Amino acid sequence: MLSYRHSFHAGNHADVVKHTVQSLIITSLKEKEKPFLYLDTHAGAGRYQLHSQHAERTGEYLEGIARIWQRDDLPEELRPYMQAVKAWNMGDQLRYYPGSPLIARHLLRAQDKISLTELHPSDYPLLRNEFLKDERARVQRADGYLQLKAQLPPQSRRGFVLIDPPYELKTDYQAVVSGIQEGYRRFSTGVYALWYPVVLRQQIKRMVRELEATGIRNMLKIELAVLPDSDRHGMTASGMIVINPPWKLEEQMKRVLPWLHRALVPDGKGHASVEWIVPE
């Protein structure tokens, strides 16, 4: 069942929101000198060619990163993310999109650690090759959910866990809840960021209820919709559920998400929201 390839979707509106949140969390964690672990459970290939056959077939990046790539009015909250994207491109030509592992690699410090897992047989070698010379990084072909048990808590007792499964299987919606519960039991002070797609709204409502039922507190939901909810095939929205968010993240996203909605959705459809599922 490992058929999902993020190369078809790299740089789309969901990536823009996901990687904005990721960049702001990393930037906040760097405000303290003590090192931390960045754990990416479903890391993908690392880097994506935007003029590849896959990306050109869908053209999703044209309604995502391409819409803000050369804007001269970027909010301050987007600067860490955009600096990471521009680091992988020369001049004004947008050729590559860095996935979450390469965004983390650009933003993390020498003392921080990177742990990446990917199961896809084509993506794993590409990811491994990206990090061959990075002494901070550990790259494995392994089940990402199991890392929430195997690698937590980190030695530094500081960490950021990004959980970004393909949701190729319906069981992923339950697996992410179980994984977070397992990780939180071992490492309750870590920052956890869960990405989700909205294909059927009922699936997300059910997942949120299950997360609430875990008893975990301090849970923030950030969502950008490009279309109204629908029962038709296709993703209408996506979001991030962040547990133990840095104290600035709520206000940062309340400032930048409406700007992203205007930039990415010129017709004004959909919505942008930042709200607490469970407060602290």
UniProtKB/TrEMBL annotation:
Database matches in SUPFAM superfamilies: S-adenosyl-L-methionine-dependent methyltransferases
Pfam families in the record: RsmJ
Enzyme class: transferase
Matches recorded under Gene3D superfamilies: Vaccinia Virus protein VP39
Site feature Interaction with substrate rRNA, where: Y4
GO biological process, one term: rRNA base methylation
Residues binding S-adenosyl-L-methionine, per UniProt: H19, H42, S100, E118, D143, G144, D164
Top-level taxonomic group: Bacteria
Listed PROSITE patterns: N6_MTASE (PS00092)
GO CC terms: cytosol
Membership in a protein family: Belongs to the RlmJ family.
UniProt keyword list: Methyltransferase, RNA-binding, rRNA processing, S-adenosyl-L-methionine, Transferase
Statement: the UniProt record of this protein carries the keyword Methyltransferase: yes
Signal peptide per UniProt: none
Record's catalysed reaction(s): adenosine(2030) in 23S rRNA + S-adenosyl-L-methionine = N(6)-methyladenosine(2030) in 23S rRNA + S-adenosyl-L-homocysteine + H(+)
Free-text function comment from the UniProt entry: Specifically methylates the adenine in position 2030 of 23S rRNA.
InterPro entries in alphabetical order: DNA_methylase_N6_adenine_CS, RlmJ, SAM-dependent_MTases_sf
Residues annotated as catalytic: D164 (proton acceptor)
Protein name in UniProt: Ribosomal RNA large subunit methyltransferase J
GO function terms (MF aspect): 23S rRNA (adenine(2030)-N(6))-methyltransferase activity; RNA binding
Subunit structure comment from the entry: Monomer.
EC numbers: 2.1.1.266
